[in-house]
Specification:
It is globular and about 35 Å long. With 189 residues, it is an alpha+beta fold. The strands form four sheets. The chain has a three-stranded antiparallel β-sheet, with no helix packed on it. The protein has a three-stranded antiparallel β-sheet with strand order 4-5-6, with no helix packed on it. The structure holds FE2/S2 (inorganic) cluster. The site of FE2/S2 (inorganic) cluster has 12 residues, from loops.
Length: 189
């Protein structure tokens, strides 16, 4: 049986509420754990608050005017490379006409672009295999057999909709959140 502490408190209905040493030790232990957790959580949560420069880059406006058909540019959004490609009419036609069975992750071209802006493809430029940055946005870059992007790390290839057409990458390039502010301007994020 637990040994009562010398001090006793009076509880409801006038009954003495005896606090045992064991109960007291449990209370102390739990309180200490709570304080410890609080002390740990605060700097952790504080470190999750985005700094001002990160907030400033939470969205990026991109002027599309200088990007000619067939060209691509890379912008940085939240520390990630974003590929913006101006597709030619022939590239759009091929992307639309390619049968879904030919794809590793089948997705129609229409689901990869914004309605009325099929000439623009905007993808996160990180290979879905192990995270390399594929080539294909500079004029001198190889674009692979499908005209989009080529990842030199292990040879994955993407088409002009950013859909993986040759592995080992298992998934299409991810699409960032973005919207057209006008026909020549997008906002990413
Ligand atoms: S990281 Fe791109 S193919 Fe491996």
């Amino acid at each position: 049986m637990a040994e009562p502490l010398a001090a006793a408190t009076t509880a409801q209905h006038g009954q003495p509420d005896i606090v045992s040493k064991r109960d007291f030790l449990k209370l102390v232990t739990i309180s200490g754990a709570a304080i410890g957790a609080g002390a740990f959580a605060w700097p952790f949560i504080a470190s999750m608050n985005p700094s001002r420069d990160v907030l400033a880059l939470s969205s990026v406006e991109v002027d599309l005017t200088p990007v000619q058909a067939g060209q691509g540019i890379t912008v940085v959004w939240r520390g990630k490379p974003i590929f913006v490609r101006h597709r030619t009419e022939a590239e759009i036609k091929e992307a639309v006409d390619t049968p879904l069975q030919a794809m590793i992750e089948p997705v129609p071209d229409a689901d990869r672009v914004k309605p009325g802006h099929a000439q623009w493809i905007v993808v996160i430029g990180i290979c879905t295999h192990l995270g390399c940055v594929p080539l294909g946005n500079k004029p001198t870059d190889p674009r692979g057999d499908y005209g989009g992007w080529f990842c030199p790390c292990h040879g994955s290839q993407y088409d002009t909709a950013g859909r993986v057409r040759h592995g080992p990458a298992p998934l299409n390039l991810f699409l960032p959140p973005y919207a057209f502010e006008s026909d020549t301007k997008i906002r990413i994020g």
